[in-house]
Amino acid sequence: MSFIERSNYAVEEKEEAAFEILLKVGYFKRCSEHEEVVMTSGTVAQRDAYRYGNSHWNHYSGIFKNRKEMTAAIKRVSENPDYSSRRCYECERHSYRA
To answer: CA-to-CA distance for 73 and 50, rounded, in angstroms?
Structure first.
């Protein structure tokens, strides 16, 4: 595995961990009809994800170098426009068919 491949893998692993944290605290939620669709819940603040990550640091310390790197990843993933909607695009798309 080349340096670039290892670096990309490390970034993906960190973003997956941040995504997991955001799901666990309820910042993100999955559509009940379309499991693959993730949306922002709108009811949980970013700081709740930071608190969760910090309180479970032992679980995440092997992925992140330090807590600052973890909170930066949480912030980056939480601001990803792919998850910014509060509605499922699949449900919206199907509700307009008649």
So the answer is: 10
Nearest-angstrom CA–CA distance, 42 and 44: 6
**CB atoms < 10 A from the CB of 27, how many?**
24
Residue 66, Cβ density class (10 Å: 0-12 exposed, 13-18 middle, ≥19 buried): exposed
Cα dihedral across residues 56, 79, 75, 77: positive or negative: positive
Three-state secondary-structure class, residue 21: helix
Dist CA 87 CA 63 (whole Å): 31
Residue 68 makes CB contacts below 8 A (sequence gap 6+) with none
Q: What is the pLDDT tens value at each position of the chain, 98 positions in all?
A: 676 676 666 889 999 999 999 999 999 999 888 888 888 888 889 999 999 999 999 999 999 999 999 999 999 999 998 888 888 888 888 775 44
